[in-house]
Amino acid sequence: MPGYHQVGSCNGLHCGVSEIPEGYCVCFWNKATRVISRESATLSFSPGIGRRTMFGFGYDPSSDKYKVVGIALTMLSLDVSEKTKMKVYGAGDSSWRNLKGFPVLWTLPKVGGVYLSGTLNWVVIMGNETIHSEIVIISVDLEKETCISLFLPDDFYIFDTNIGVFRDSLCVWQDSNTHLGLWQMRKFGDDKSWIQLINFSYLHLNICPYEEKSMILPLCMSNNGDFFMLKFTRNADDEYQTILYNQRDGKSQVSVAPSGSFRTLLWRNLKIFTKSLVIPY
């Protein structure tokens, strides 16, 4: 959609956001049927210095409605109550609604919300001061339109933190430039149910530690848990490597794709597209 930045895709339906002078508006469309919704009501946040926004898109099965959540963070706000705002809009609604129970955030997440089982999830730094902040997952329930905080695993260190869905479960992983660790939440919503699935040394993957601006990304895992496929790149302009790692015997096979065939950011945000007949309104 020209003029729209895509923020998510769910069940074949896409959501895009357009910034306008009055604020933001969203639009939904189905690529398969080429049906496009009307623009939403305008989303406006109070003016503020250093304001940043982030969006997420998902499905509420209780109402059979697709919803988008907007988060605004005003970095230099002196009023703590105005520092973070979260609002929600459903396809076909006439207005945006305030989300209940959201925390004060110190930073916004790097990527849009990860959708799982009627919720949108982000890794954020919560708190209004650096010394009183902590890294958590905020999870938005699209049915109740409420927000809760979930703690990360006890042995989780604060490095580059990512969140995604792996084997139909919420997962987080971190790249410390020497190791890649991935944890799975066995029971969604229970932050005591984390288990560590992998903890690979870069040396086992035939990658030199401490590569500047490198990024390693888990892609998939075999059913028996022996094999992992990962993607590694040194920077956005460099060639990327696809690594098939055998956890049982510690061996890895590496294939290299030509430079420029995929950009790091593009690969990181790739989504599975499902054709459907979902109506976007």
Q: How big is the Rg? A: 20 Å
User: Helix tally?
Assistant: 1
**What is the CA-CA span between the terminal residues?**
16 Å
What structural class do you assign from the helix and strand content? mainly beta
User: Segments where pLDDT lies below 50 for 5+ residues?
Assistant: 258-269
General form: globular
Strand proportion? over 45%
- Total DSSP E strands: 21
Oligomer: single chain
Helix and strand run: EEEEEEEEEEEEEEEEEEEEEH
- Biggest sheet features: 5 strands, antiparallel
Overall pLDDT level: 79
Task: Tell me roughly what share of residues is in helical segments.
Answer: under 10%
Outline the structure in words.
2% of the residues lie in helices and 49% in strands. The strands form five sheets. Strands 9, 10, 11, 12 and 13 form a five-stranded antiparallel beta sheet that branches. β10 (114-116) and β11 (119-126) form a beta hairpin. With 281 residues, it is mainly beta. The model is unreliable at 258-269 (pLDDT under 50). It is built from one helix and 21 strands.
